[in-house]
Amino acid sequence: MNMSNNRVLTMARAGREAVKWEMENDKNVFMLGEDVYKFGGVFGTADGLGEIFGADRILDTPISETGFIGLATGAAIAGMRPIVELAFADFIGVCYSAIVNLAAKHHYLSNGEFKVPMVLMLGSGGGYNNGGQHSQALHACLAHMPGMKVIAPSNAYDAKGFMHAAIRSDDFVVYMGQKRTSGVGFFGAPIPDSMSEIPDEPYTIEFGVARTVKEGTDVTVVAISWAVHQAMDAAKELEKEGISVEVIDPRTLVPLDRESIINSVRKTGRLVVADEDYQSYGFTSEVIASVIESEPNVFKSAPIRVANPDTTIPYSRPMEQQVLPTSARIKQAILDVMK
Amino acid sequence: MNMSNNRVLTMARAGREAVKWEMENDKNVFMLGEDVYKFGGVFGTADGLGEIFGADRILDTPISETGFIGLATGAAIAGMRPIVELAFADFIGVCYSAIVNLAAKHHYLSNGEFKVPMVLMLGSGGGYNNGGQHSQALHACLAHMPGMKVIAPSNAYDAKGFMHAAIRSDDFVVYMGQKRTSGVGFFGAPIPDSMSEIPDEPYTIEFGVARTVKEGTDVTVVAISWAVHQAMDAAKELEKEGISVEVIDPRTLVPLDRESIINSVRKTGRLVVADEDYQSYGFTSEVIASVIESEPNVFKSAPIRVANPDTTIPYSRPMEQQVLPTSARIKQAILDVMK
Amino acid sequence: MLPDNETRVKMYRTMLTSRHMDDRIMELYYKDKTPVFDIAAGLIPGEIHSSHGQEACAVGTVFVLGQEDWITAAHRPHHTAIARGICVKKILCEIMGKANGLSAGRGGHMHLYSKEHKFCSSGIIAEGMGPAAGMALASRMQGKGGIGVCYLGEAAVNQGAWHEVMNMAGVYKLPFICVIEDNNWGVSVSKAASTAIARNSDRATSYNALGLYVDSNDPDDIYNKMTEATEYARSGKGPVILELKTYRLQGHMLGDPQHYVPEEEKLAFRDCTIDYKNKLVNEGVITESEADSIIADIKNEVDEAVEFAIKSPLPDAQNALTGNFV
Amino acid sequence: MLPDNETRVKMYRTMLTSRHMDDRIMELYYKDKTPVFDIAAGLIPGEIHSSHGQEACAVGTVFVLGQEDWITAAHRPHHTAIARGICVKKILCEIMGKANGLSAGRGGHMHLYSKEHKFCSSGIIAEGMGPAAGMALASRMQGKGGIGVCYLGEAAVNQGAWHEVMNMAGVYKLPFICVIEDNNWGVSVSKAASTAIARNSDRATSYNALGLYVDSNDPDDIYNKMTEATEYARSGKGPVILELKTYRLQGHMLGDPQHYVPEEEKLAFRDCTIDYKNKLVNEGVITESEADSIIADIKNEVDEAVEFAIKSPLPDAQNALTGNFV
Ligand SMILES: Cc1ncc(C[n+]2csc(CCOP(=O)(O)OP(=O)(O)O)c2C)c(N)n1
Ligand SMILES: Cc1ncc(C[n+]2csc(CCOP(=O)(O)OP(=O)(O)O)c2C)c(N)n1
Ligand SMILES: [Mg+2]
Ligand SMILES: [Mg+2]
User: Fold this and answer.
1) Which residues contact B247 (CB under 8 A, 6 or more apart)?
2) Cis peptide bond upstream of C35, omega within 30
3) H/E element holding C28?
4) What angle do CA A289, A290, A291 make, to 5 degrees?
5) Chain C residues close to D196, C-beta within 8 Å
6) Fewer CB within a 10 Å sphere, N or C end of chain A?
7) Which residues are within 5 Å of ligand 3 (an ion), measured at CB?
C-alpha cells in the first residue's frame, strides 16, 4: 500500500472515521455496546465518539449481549441503524441466538416486511496470549448461517469502505476485525500493510469482491483477515526463492467471491488456504470445495489448509504460535504444494 | 436392516434403552432438561424414565438452557455423568457459550484436571413445516468447534450403541438425532430403515468409524443423519437404472472418518455429499475438501453438494421441500455427477 | 381505567374471533392427520400453539395500545395478532403456508409479522424482549412517543434474555412493558417447578420497574391494569411487568393431551370467552340474543376467511431461495 | 460468626500473598513491554486482571469454606485462588505460560484450575454460575455435603446466566452461594450505568434466596456474613447472594489508567491490606513489628516463587495439539 500521502490510518481509525461520518450524516445511526461511551470501545472502534455524539448516541450497555443485540435488532426494525460493538468474537457464544435466529432471520421470515439495517462489530482472533476464550476467530460460526453478510477486512482502506457500506446496507452485516490488525495502541507497532492511505471523503466497497493482494503464477494463497499479512510475508520470502505466489483476500465470507478464487487457481493450479479459525467445517474447506466443485481437474497437487488444527487455543506463547496460521506455516505449505 | 427378529425398535426407543441401562448400572448418570420428567422429552428420549427413576434423576429444568448446561457441566466436573436433553438443535443459540466455551473447553484448559463426561442430546432438522427457528440441522456449528465429539446416528442400532458409548465416554459428547428419524409417534410412520433389530444387551460403537450403508462402484454418496435415508432411496432407484451407488454414513462428524470416505471415492471417482445443514462452511465442504487434500486427482467429475442452499428455512411445504436434501435432489446430483 | 361498553363489546368480539379461528385451525389440523398422526401432514402442518383460554390477555392489553406502539408476540401469537387487528385471512393463509399469507408462507404460525401493525413474533423463548425494548428506544430516539410491549409466558421469564432486557429497560428507563401470560405451564413443567417465587411481577423490584398482577383473566381488569402500565411507561418512569393469570385450555400444542396437568387443576380451568359473555349479559351490556348473533357473525366471518385461505394458492417452491437479503 | 485471631492473622498473611504476587506480576508485566507497549510481548503477555484491593473478599469468604466445597472463580481469579491455598508457584507458572503451571500453560491467567482444591475459573462473564450450582447439586446427589460458590463482579449480575442459575438454585434449593465483588465498575461502566437498582443482594427476592450485603471491605465482617451464608446454604433452605463492596485499585486490567473513574471516587478508594493491618495492630492482635516481619516473610516467599516461575521451562509447542479429549 502506498503510504506517501498525508493520511495513513490504522484499521481502527479508518473504521471509526466511517462510523463518525455516517453518524454525522444520518441521525438514525447510533452505536451501542460495552465500554463504547467513555472507553471508546475496547479495540478503539469508538474512540472519542462518546464525546462528540454524547451518551444517547454512543450507548454503554450492561454485560447483556443477548439483551443489547436483541434491543438493537428491535431498534433497527423500528427505523434506526444501530452499530453494535461486541468486543470479542468469543462472546457470540452468549448471544448466538440473538444473532442467528433473530437478527439474521427477521427479514426472511417476515418476507421483507421488516429490514434489519444493523452492523455487528466483532474483534476476532488471537496471537497475543489471551487464552482460549478470548482468542477465537469464529467467522465460520457466522458465515455458515443464512441471513447475514459477513465481512473481515484486513487493511484500513477496506475497513473504512466496508464500514460505510455496512452502515448504509439495509441488510444485517457482521463486521469482523482481527484484533491485532486494528493498530490499537496496546498491540504494539501496527502491521505496516494493515495501514492505508485513506481518502478524506467517504467511499464504499462492494461486498463479495475479492482483492488480489499480490499477483503470481505458481501458487494461489487464499487468506482472510490477519492471515492475509502472514500470507504476504510468506509470499515475499518465497519470491526470493523463485516461487511466484498469488495472494487473494476474499474480504467477505458472505458473499464469497468464488469466481476470483477459481480464476486464480485456473492460472496457478495450486492452492493453499490460510485461516485463523478452526480448520474443520470452516473457511478453508469451503474455499477448497468451491474450487473443486466447478473445476475438478484444476489441481496440479493437493491443496493444503493452514488453519487452527481443531484445538482449543492454548495460552502459552510457543503453544499458541503452533496453532496460528503463521507465515512460517504458510511458507511450508506453499513449498509442499509446489512439490 | 434385518427386521426378522423380535425386537425392532425406533431410534428414540433404542437410545432411551441405553440411557435406562446406564442409569440402572451407574448411579452417577442422571438426565436433565426441559420436559423430561413427566413428558418423557419432547422427542421421546426419556419416555417413561421419570416414573422409573424419579424426579431427582430425571430432572425437569426451567427454560434456562445456558443455566442448565452450565449446571450439568459443573455436575460432570464434580463426578456425575449428566445427560442433557435440549429438545431442538435450534436452541443451541441461547446456550452456545455454555456448550462451546465452557463444556467443550474445560478439559483442555484445565490440562485434564477436570473431565466433562457429559452427553448433550439435540433433536435436529426439519421437513415437517415447523418454521425457520425449529427446523435447523446445525451440526456444523458444533462440529466446527474443538473439544467435543459430535455424533449423528441415522438408525436405531447406531442410536443405542452410540448412546452407550457417549454416556461411558469421559469426553463431552453431543448426540444429535434428526427428529423425523426418531420414530416418535407424532411424526407418522417411522422411516423403515431408521428402525433396527436391537440386541437386549448393551453394546458400544466406536466414534469415527463410518458405515458403508450400501456398496457400489459408480458414485459415492456421503450422507449424514436423515439424509442417509434420502440417499438410500435415490440409490435404490438408480440401481434400477444401472447406476451403482455406494452410500457412506460417517455417523460421527467429530471424529470424522475421512479414510473410509476417501477409500470409497478412490473406488468410484465420483462424489455427492448430502446434508440437511446449511451448505456453505459446513459438512459438505468438509467432506469434499478432505478427499481432495489427500487425493487431488481422484475425481472423474466435479463433486456435487446437496444441502440447504444457504437459506433460512421457510415454513410452507413446497418451499421447505425445495431446501431439503431430498432423494429427488440427490438422485439428480448423482445423475449429474455421472455425466 | 375501565373500558367503556363499546370497547367491551369490541373486546368480546375480538376474543371470539381469535377463539373461532383457533377452533377452526384445530379442526383442520387434526382432520388430515388421521389415522396415523403425522405432524408434517395435511393442510396445516407443524406445531400449533393455540390461544384457547388466553384471549382475555390479548384484548385487555392490546386494546389500550395505540398505532404508534410496538408489539412482539411469542410462539403463541394468534390472540395477540387478532387483537392487534391483523387481517384474519392473512393470518390463516400464513398458517396454511399460502402465498398470500402475512409472510407469503415463509414464516408460519410462530412467525407472524405486520409492519402496518408494528407487530413481530418469534418462536425462541423470550426472544421478543430485546426487540420490544429496542422498539421502545427507537420510538424515544425518534420522538415518536410509542412504547414497546413484549408478550411472553410465565415460563419464559426464567430465560436469561428476560433478565438482561428488564435490567436494560430499567437502566435506560425505557417505555417498555413486559406482559406475562401466566397459564401455569411451560409445556409440561408447572410454574412451581420452574420458578423460584410465586409471582413474576414481584421480580420488578430487581429492575426498578413497576410490577402489576391481575388474577381474574377478565378483560376489564386487564384493561384497567394495562392502562396503569402504559401511563407509567409513557411517563418516562421506566418499565413495567404486568403478569396475568390465565388458562391454557388446549394443551401446549395441538395434540398435547395434558396428562401431566392434575385433574383438580383441569377442573378449575375457566374459559374467558364464556365468563366474559356472561358478565356482559349480566351487566346488561348485551342481551343473550345479541351475544348469540355476535357469535354467529364471528363464526361466519372466520369461516369465510378459512374458505379463502383454503382456496388460496401455495407459493412457488423457488421462492424459498430468495429473500435472505434485501 | 467472627473469625478467631489465628484465622485473622492467616487471612492477613493470605491477603498479603495475593497482593505481593499481583505487585510482582504488575512489575513483570510492564517491564518488557516498553518502549512500545505490546500486549503480546514479554514474560507475561495477554490481559491481566489483578486483584489489587479485593483481597478481603477472597479471604473473608474462602476461609469459611471446607475441603468439600467447590469454587468457580471469575476472570479476576488471583486472590480467590490464593485464598483457596493453591500453590503460588503453580499459579505464577501458569500466568507465565510455563510447563509446570497449573494447566501446563494451556489455561493462563483467566483459567486457573485445581482439582485438589475443587477450584475452576472462566473468562466468560457469569459463566461460573452454572458450574458452581452443578457442583452443589452433585455434592448433594453424592451425599458429600459440599456447597458450590460462584465468584463474580457486580457487572456480571446483568448477564442472563446469572438469572437463570439463581432461579434454578432457588427452585432446586441448592446449597449454592453467589459472591458478588462489587468494585463499582465493569471495565469502564459504573454500576449505576449498568444496573437498574443499587444492591444486587436485593435481587434475592426474585429467587427465594437469602440476600446479604457487606459494605466495609473488611475480612472480619465478610467472614461473619459468609458464615451466615454457608449455614443457610448447608441447611437446605436454598441459595444465597452475598454482595461485598470493594475497590478495584489497579483498573480493569493492567494498563488501564481508569480515566473514566471520577477523581472523588478514586480518592475514596480504600486499600484493605492497609486497613486490615491497622485494625489488627490497633486491636493488639499483632504488633507493628510483627506486621513488618509478616510483610517481609510474604515478600520473600512470593519473590522465591517468582524466581522459580521465571526459571521454569516453557512447554513444548507440540503440546498444543493434544488434550482436547481424554
Ligand atoms: C429458548 C427456547 N427454549 C425452549 C423452547 C421450547 N418451548 C417452546 S414453548 C415452551 C414453553 C413456554 O412456556 P411459557 O413461556 O409459559 O408459554 P406458553 O407456552 O405457556 O404460552 C418451550 C419450552 C423454545 N422455543 N425456545
Ligand atoms: C460474556 C462476556 N462479555 C463481556 C466480557 C468482557 N469483560 C471481561 S471483564 C468485564 C467486566 C466485568 O465486570 P465485573 O463483573 O464487575 O467484574 P470486575 O472486572 O469488576 O472484577 C467485561 C465486560 C466477557 N469476558 N464475557
Ligand atoms: Mg405458560
Ligand atoms: Mg466490577
Assistant:
1) B212, B213, B214, B216, B221, B223, B228, B231, B232, B235
2) yes
3) helix C5-31
4) 90
5) 166-167, 169-171, 206-209, 238
6) C
7) C 153-155, 183, 185-186
- How far CA C299 is from CA of C16, C22, C27, C94, C265, in Å, comes to 8, 11, 14, 20, 30
Q: What is the CA radius of gyration of chain C?
A: 19
The answer to whether residue D130 neighbours chain A at the CB level (below 8 Å) is no
CATH code of residue D235: 3.40.50.970
B107 is known as an active-site residue = no
Burial, C270: exposed, middle or buried (Cβ in 10 Å; 0-12, 13-18, 19+)?
Answer: middle
Among protein residues, the one whose CA lies closest to atom 14 of ligand 1: C153
Q: Are B324 and C40 in contact (CB under 8 A)?
A: no
3-class state of residue D211 by DSSP: strand
pLDDT tens digit string along D96-110? 999 999 999 999 999
The answer to whether A74 contacts C114, with C-beta atoms less than 8 Å apart, is: no
> Locate cell 435440549: which residue?
B86
Q: Are A83 and A167 in contact (CB under 8 A)?
A: yes
Q: Is residue C320 in a domain? A: no
Element (H, E) at B122: strand B119-124
Domains B8-197 and B211-338 share a fold: yes
Query: Which residue is associated with the grid cell 509442499?
Result: A336
Query: Which of D109, D187, D217, D258 to mutate to test ligand 2, by most ligand atoms within 8 A of the CB atom?
Result: D187
Task: Write the residue in A67, A79, A113 that is nearest to C142 by C-beta.
Answer: A79
**pLDDT tens digits along C78-125:** 999 999 999 999 999 999 999 999 999 999 999 999 999 999 999 999
Instruction: Determine, for residues B64 and D135 on separate chains, whether the beta-carbon distance falls below 8 Å.
Output: no
Q: Which residues contact B315 (CB under 8 A, 6 or more apart)?
A: B129, B130, B131, B132, C46, C94, C97, C103, C105, C106, C107, C108, C109, C111
Ligand in nearest proximity to the CA of D252: 2
- Does residue A1 surpass a pLDDT of 80? no
Single-letter code of the amino acid located at D64: V
Q: What is the mean pLDDT of residues B302-316?
A: 98
Q: Within chain B, where are the H helices? A: 11-25, 49-53, 65-77, 96-97, 106-109, 139-143, 156-168, 226-240, 258-268, 283-294, 317-323, 327-338
Is C326 inside any structural domain?
no
CATH topology of domain B211-338: Rossmann fold (3.40.50)
pLDDT at A5: 57
Pocket test for ligand 1, best of B63, B92, B179 (most atoms within 8 A of CB): B63
Which CATH number fits the domain A8-197, given the four candidates 3.20.20.80, 3.40.50.970, 3.30.450.20, 1.10.630.10? 3.40.50.970
Q: Are strands D70-73 and D148-153 parallel, antiparallel or unpaired?
A: parallel
The answer to whether residues B277 and B224 touch, using CB atoms and an 8 Å cutoff, is no
Give the residue from B85, B189, B127, B38 showing the smallest Cα distance to C257: B38
Q: Count how many domains chain D has.
A: 1
Decide if pLDDT at B4 tops 80: no
Ligand nearest to the CA of D75: 2
Grid cell locating D265: 471516587
CA distances (Å), B327 to each of B233, C201, D38, D210, D230, in order?
A: 6, 52, 56, 59, 61
**C192, B60 contact by CB (below 8 A):** no
Instruction: Give the start-to-end residue ranges of the domains of chain B.
Output: 8-197, 211-338
Q: Is the CB of C243 under 6 A from ligand 1?
A: no
Residue of D187, D195, D203, D316 for testing the chain A interface, max A β-carbons within 10 Å: D187
Average pLDDT in chain C: 97
Q: Provide the domain limits for residue D115.
A: 5-313
Contact by Cβ (8 Å): A124, A179: yes
pLDDT in tens, A155-202: 999 999 999 999 999 999 999 999 999 999 899 999 999 999 999 999
CA-CA distance, D59 to D3, in Å (whole number)? Answer: 11
